[in-house]
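Now for our target.
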Amino acid sequence: MDLNTIESDDIGTAAGQPAVLSPAAKKVFIKTYGCQMNVYDSQRMTDALAADGYAATDAIGEADLVLLNTCHIREKAAEKVYSELGRIRDMKAERALAGREMLVGVAGCVAQAEGAEIIRRSPAVDLVIGPQTYHRLPDVLARVRGGEKIVETDYAIEDKFEHLPQPKRAEVIKRGVTAFLTVQEGCDKFCTFCVVPYTRGSEVSRPVAQIVAEAERLAEAGVREVTLLGQNVNAWHGRSETKGGRTEEWGLGRLLFRLAEIPGLARLRYTTSHPRDMDDELIAAHRDLPALMPYLHLPVQSGSDRILKAMNRRHTAKDYLALLDRIRTARPDIALSGDFIVGFPGETEADFEATMDLVRQVNYASAFSFKYSPRPGTPGAEMPDHVPETVKDGRLQRLQALLVKQQQDFGLSLVGSTIDTLIEKPGRQAGQKVGRSPWLQPVIVDEKAGEIGDIIQVRITKTGYNSLFAELA
């Protein structure tokens, strides 16, 4: 899966549970693992549960319903979930002694992959629900209260987004001036290292009207920046109804042009993309749309054609570099981000050096890099010539040192320049606010520089490890 993964576990919270309390008193705690799509899914689970009388809580100890929204992209992801469930089991037992019920559920990609095995290994779990079926949560909880243990991991035939209630305006406002919006799910690429086709299913695109309506609601609630999400977001091809009643199919570039027309919506981003799905219309959007930020996450995974073929990426290093030339010609100030897997089965030192050469040629503004770890059920796990861990460790350190240097150099190149910054939230230190540059870096400014939601011009004065410091221009 190429979506940027998030290292912090507690990302989203949602809403709650039991039969013994009045509906107004029910609370839910959601622990979110993984990528931005899981953050979005946790928010939508909150919305689905709100209609059932659940309110979000950040305190797991007061929750009537605990949901783990899981990710299967990391090594030993399932074992981490089982470890967490052991701690929750003890909390559930303590609440039972006090006469208070706590329902426990597992959602997301580990739920999809493990299914009933989760309940077998962790009897404290009451429900297991996959990423395509969380819109059924209220009905599932009603069955759980009736004494059933529920596993819902079938790929839903109906469109889950049509069945999800819309978030209340107050809830959107509470979430901030930036928002995620899922437009596409699933993957048909079948990269040999990836579990996504098996946990998220085949590629499905939401229709245009549904996406536009959700984006309009976000903008009306004060959201200034929307990031479109998909496992292969630039593979999105959504249906649009014409005035004559015919159905057209749009690509992501055309959708971005439409979203840029929404009043109040000042910034657009999208992630994550596959090189094979960057078409001319999408590149033109980068050229012609001021609202589309000059930042592109475009994973390559390796610089070796031999390894790319083994990964089933279906592009070469030359293809990738030629594509970047086209994109940079259209938008010269674009900053590039990528994903890299080090130590894929059969990777030689020469293969790894090809990756290092590609990184030097591209000069990334940021990147994510990982050691290869086999995922059960994927072709990569069955391949011969797995690379020793010590070799993978050494290569990863060398790659990350180069990527960090490029990221720092990019930040330094901005010192003294004047840029637009969207103020997002209060800073960690008193007297500060945090904004976001067009290239996705945090920008630290004086709290008097503007209000949250303002887009202000600032002059970059210095850089931190991952952030920029600025003053009003």
Remarks:
- The domain at 5-152 is CATH 3.40.50.12160 (Rossmann fold).
- Residues 95 and 101 are 6 Å apart (CA to CA).
- The two ends are 40 Å apart (CA to CA).
- The chain is about 35% helix and 25% strand.
